[in-house]
Amino acid sequence: MAEKKELLQTIVVNPALEASASIIWLHGLGADGYDFAGIVKSLDLDDLSVRFIFPHAPMRQISINAGMKMRAWYDIYTLERMDLEDEIGIKESMHDINALIQNELNADIPAERIVLAGFSQGGAMALYCGLRYPKQLAGILALSAYLPLLNKLQNEAHIANHDTSLMMAHGTWDPVVPFAFGQISCVALEKARYAVEWHSYAMQHEVCQQEIYDIAVWLRRCLTK
């Protein structure tokens, strides 16, 4: 029998709460679970009894950073085109993220009360995993991100999340993940008849105050259906 893989280490906000919903929030390349833990207070969702899970990605060598090791959900070969991707790493991380979702299910949080969210590379993984997950989630949030392995979506997407609430947001001046990557992904999802709520902001590779407000409104809508 294969050895059971351990769950990723996480930062949990409101761990003692009698949670009725969970938000799993994935960080970007080179960051860690602490990167977005501070956003919880700004979202002001205390009345919804939400538990936030901020996992740490594994350490990986990153090609565009001269092979340096850092926390990452998958390797990145280039940020100039969308068709050279680390499919093996992406699928390995999907397995880890699905295990985190299962851990919430085991804690009696139903799938339709779980939001999968992320920023940059974490947002890319939120989209990739969420659209393939076999149970309907409450929502999928991708900030300053894009959809990896876009050409495989049609064959790999699960019908369970075809009508799930999707929100994508991107800075028009983003020098890291091109704004066009987010737009291309959004258009492809719309052509596949996903209802995507798209937001753009006059900012770089970051999160702004108006975006936080828009995220809070969207999350509240997802979790009060």
Structure notes:
This protein is of the alpha/beta class and 225 residues long. Helix content is 31%, strand content 21%. It has a single domain, classed as 3-Layer(aba) Sandwich (Rossmann fold). It has six helices and nine strands. The strands form two sheets. Strands 1-3-2-6-7-8-9 form a seven-stranded mixed beta sheet, with helices on both faces. Strands 4-5 form a two-stranded antiparallel sheet. The N and C termini lie far apart (41 Å).
**Order of helix and strand elements from N to C terminus:** EEHEEEHEHEHEHEH
The pLDDT mean sits at 95
What's the CATH class, please? Alpha Beta
By DSSP, the count of extended strands is: 9
**Inertia-based shape:** globular
What is the oligomer described by this structure? single chain
Our count of helices gives: 6
| CATH homologous superfamily heading | Alpha/Beta hydrolase fold, catalytic domain
Strand and helix map with partners:
Elements: E1 10-13, E2 21-26, H1 39-43, E3 50-55, E4 59-62, E5 68-71, H2 87-106, E6 114-119, H3 121-132, E7 139-143, H4 153-156, E8 165-171, H5 179-191, E9 196-201, H6 209-223
Parallel strand pairs: 2-3, 2-6, 6-7, 7-8, 8-9
Antiparallel strand pairs: 1-3, 4-5
